[in-house]
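Researcher: Good morning. I'm working through a list of sequences from a screen, and I'd like to move beyond sequence-only analysis. For each chain I'm collecting a predicted structure so we can compare shapes side by side. This is the next one on the list. No need for commentary yet; just the structure.
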Amino acid sequence: MNIKIPVLFLFLCLSFFACKKFDNERINKLSSDNVNVNKSLVTATSIILDIGKEGITEYGHCWSVNNEPTISDFKSTKTTEIKTGYFTDTLKNLHPNTTYKIRSYAKNNSTVLYGETKTFTTITTGITVTARNETAVTNTSATVKGIISNLKSLKIQDYGHCWSKTSNPTINDFKTSFGELSQDNEFTSSLSNLELETPFYIRSYAIADNSTILYSDTVILVIPQLQVQTISAQTTSATTATLTGNILKLGVNTVTNHGFCWSYSTSSPDINSTVVSLNSINHTGNFTTILNNISQGITYYYRAFATEGAVIRYGEIKSFTNN
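Model: Good morning. C-alpha cells for this chain:
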C-alpha cells in the first residue's frame, strides 16, 4: 500500500505536465502559408491548425513596410466563423512597386500570436487607364471622360487628364488632378484653354509612385468653328436678284440667325448694314434670299453671315451690278 501511493502521484504529475505541454502547442499552431501577387491583386492565405485552449476572438493578416508587422499596422480582421482551416484575405490600399512584410495573426483576450513573416512586392501590371467621350462644350472648353480600373489591391497617388497641342501629352502639360484613388473609378475632366479648329491631344493618367506614371491611349479633339460661304448673286429681273450662301460647318453653339448683309454705299457690309435674316438653322447646306427693288447700274456688295451666341461669322464679300 505504501508503494502504490507514490506511483499514483507520479502518474498524475506526468499527466498534468503532458496536458499542459499539449495546450501550449495547440495555441501556437498558426501558419502563414502563401502570398500571391497576381498583377494588381494581392491575396494572403494562412491556416489555423488549432484554436487552442483559450480560443480565438480575432484573426487575419497584418502588413507593413517594416520588418515585423503587428496589428497596429494595416490589417484584415475576422471575428466570426472562427474555426481551424485555411483563410484568405485580399489586401487593400497597397502602394505600387513597394516591398511589404506580412504575417498572419490570431488574438484572444490576452495574447496576440503571429505566424512567420513573408515578403512580397507589388506591381502595377493590370491597372487599366482609359480616355474616351471627348466633347466640345464651348469654343474654348471641352469635357472628356476617363476610367481607372483593375486597381484591386493598389492605391495610386493621383489621376486625371493631361492635354496639349502635341501628341503624347504628359502631366507637365495642361492637366486636371483628382488626388489619391484606391478603387476603380470613372471620372470627367473639364478642359480649358482650347482653340477652334486646332487638334488637341488628350490622355488619362494615373501616378502609381514617384517614378511610374501610367497613361491611356491618346484621343484627339478638334473644336469645330462655324463656317459660312458666300456663293453667288444672280439677277432675275430688272429689280430683283437672288443671293445664295452656304453653311459649310456648324460650330459648338446653336446657330441663332443666318442670312445676308448687303450695301451699295460701302464695300464692306456687316451686321450693321442692311440685313436679310433667315433665323436659326441646325444643319449645313445652301440657303437663298431674294433682294427686291434693286436699281440698275448700281453695284451692290453682299456677303453671307451666321451667328452663334455673340459670335458672328461672315463669308467672303462679293458684288454684283444690275445692268
